[in-house]
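I am still getting used to backbone structure tokens and would like to learn alongside you. Label the sequence line and the structure token line clearly, so we can match residues to local backbone shapes. Go ahead whenever you are ready, and we will take it from there:
>
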Amino acid sequence: MTTRTLLIGGTRNLGPAIVAELRDAGHALTVLTRGRTPDVLPADVERLHADRGAAAQLAAALAGRDFDAVVDTTLYTGAEARAAAALLDGRVGHYLWISTGQVYLVREGLARPFREEDYAGPVMAEPPREGPDWDDWTYGAEKRAAEDVFAEAWAARGFPATSLRLPMVNSERDHYDRLLNYLVRLDDGGPIVAPDQPRFALRHVYGGDVARAIRSLLARGLGRGDAINLSQDETLSLEDFLARLGVAAERPVALVRAPRARMDAAGLLPAASPFSGRWMSELDNRRSREVYGLAYTPLRDYLARLVAWHRAHPRVPAGYARRAAELALAREVDAER
């Protein structure tokens, strides 16, 4: 029997990979977007257009329809979760949605790497709206609000939601150009300039692995009522990551650490070093492997794929515009040492 699946979002970053996986598995796909992003999806994928943040638009687009599965990649708030749970109650067999590792970063007193059982507990106070952390805090707090809505809907009436907690996603279509920002800097032969603090370990996830995890969980009917960390197996420093990227790109790597305050003042972040943020999560993936049988592509292999993709689709990211200022700062820092 054909699985009728709705994908909310789907035209950038994770969307095309999810579409490819589910089409390969025989799903009859409907994709709902706002219709604003260029669409490279196959012709046999049904398109619907609505702003999912407008409950009335979403209800009108889905009127009279039900689905075996829904994959929601664009849900960000508790209000959106309440609207989705109410609209799709009794109309969906399995609802998977993309949450974030930042649900742990807004918790108080946690040690890395974060485990699923670390979720419950006190949330840090809201930072000042004019400060540098408010947007990231709000993102994590609102994703927690959405997770709580789905947990309550599961407990009250069996709404079949699965929350997939993701760290930073490395993918071919990453619209933030994070990996590409490093790659173009390696290609020009100059150093990567990164802030001296913080130096959090990197433990990201490959976008293709997220798509395969969704395919696997839907095929086996697993994860309803649960939240699952998805993450690559390797944990490494920025230095180690850049060394591996250099091998994949066949480029030498030089790294200069500069005071974060000077980089911020010069407007160099995050583009100069996108993996040096204050709000990067590090997730323990053991439960996903041991309970759900999920597996992850080795970092070396997926870096080779991503480098090959960018070589085949050359483009200069907007964040490269201040490269001259980065190099000038690197020279200043070297001269001061």
Remarks:
- The mean pLDDT is 96.
